[in-house]
Amino acid sequence: MVSQHPFPSHDTQPPFWGHPTMCRNLDELLAHGVQVDLVCTTPRLCVGRRLSGWPGLRIYGFPMWQRRSPAIWYPLQYLAFFAWALFVVSGLALRRRYDVVQVDNIPDLLVFSTLVPRLRRMPIVFFMYELMPEMTATRLSLGASDRGLRLVYLLERAALNLVYNAMEASSPGARVTLSVRRAGERALLQVEDRGQGIATDRLHSLFDSFVSTKRTGAHVGMGLPNVRRIALAHDGNISLILEDGRKIEFSGTAHSHFDHGYAVTSHSAQGLTANRVLINADTTVHPELLNARFAYVSVSRARLDAEIYTNNAEGLASRLSADLGKSSALEFSQSVGISAPKDLGIGQSI
After folding, report:
1. Labelling 54: which of 47, 174, 199, 217 has CA 20 to 30 A away?
2. pLDDT tens, 255-273?
């Protein structure tokens, strides 16, 4: 981990206070048994120092007390620590192969200190401390109502919802990957996890509002629905790719409007009419449920368009051509092997 933020030390007066976010990240990594080499700022020079209260941690500290005036100190401190980080990280990366190298900003140029790990094809994670909407507003002198600032806020919200869902679906210490890259004229944000997966019966309602499998009251089932709304509102796409290659995708261009619909049986649809009808023809059901009568009633409900979805296109024609007339209770009982009742006289028992 490379961070210009300070690591806490009480060996000096006044104490050298550590950065809370960096310390919280370290606590979480060490609690899961991760070995961490930390390149940071300390009150005294440290080269591979170990601390009793931080098992699994080695500190490579650059002695620097941060000064905020005069302004010239900012670039001087950045350059001094960058030189230290480049030297130490390069040396460590030549001696060891890390599972991942994390770089904290600010400054952003600190990511270039990982040149050697990158050349050795080690994964690099850029951990950004600043709150993106607020930082964007400050840098560009934007007002709270600016549309661009609103877009940045919504994109941050969508990314956080995706990452939180991935983290909650994963086991402790499991890897969750977030990546951003250009795809033509669009930007592709991808979140990948190795969690327990999504049950098949949940796929149809994955982006529905107020649907959640989590047991705590803090979850109301609005995370993924909000991600979908944000993506579609900006002509974007949202896709879910499963391990078996199946893909669920919403497109802001193709699906510009969503509305609620209701599923009814063919029997209860008699007498109803709609502009469009979607028909689910499952060839595995009982012949009494899928036959010529079902086809006539279902297709004739449509005023303009009827679409049939089936699991077996080859066998569907023969199933829909079967004409089953109405049968009496006696005929049905005989078809399933129930013997006909005997004639009983008055006063006789069965």
Report:
1. 174
2. 555 555 667 788 888 888 8
Cα separation of the two ends of the chain: 86
User: Which residues constitute the domain of residue 283?
Assistant: 274-335
> Whose CA is closest to 189, among 168, 154, 158?
158
The amino acid sitting at 308 is: I
Distance CA(215)–CA(199), nearest Å, equals 16
What would the pLDDT profile of 298-324 be if each residue is shown by its tens digit?
999 889 989 999 888 888 988 888 876
- What strands lie across the sheet with 46-49, from one edge to the other? 46-49, 57-63, 36-42, 2-6, 101-104, 124-127
Tell whether 91 is covered by a domain. Answer: yes
DSSP tally for the chain: helices H, then strands E: 9, 12
- For 11, residues 6+ apart whose C-beta sits below 8 A from its C-beta are 43, 44
Report how many domains make up the chain: 3
The answer as to whether 345 is a domain residue is: no
Task: Look at residue 63 and give its three-state secondary structure.
Answer: strand
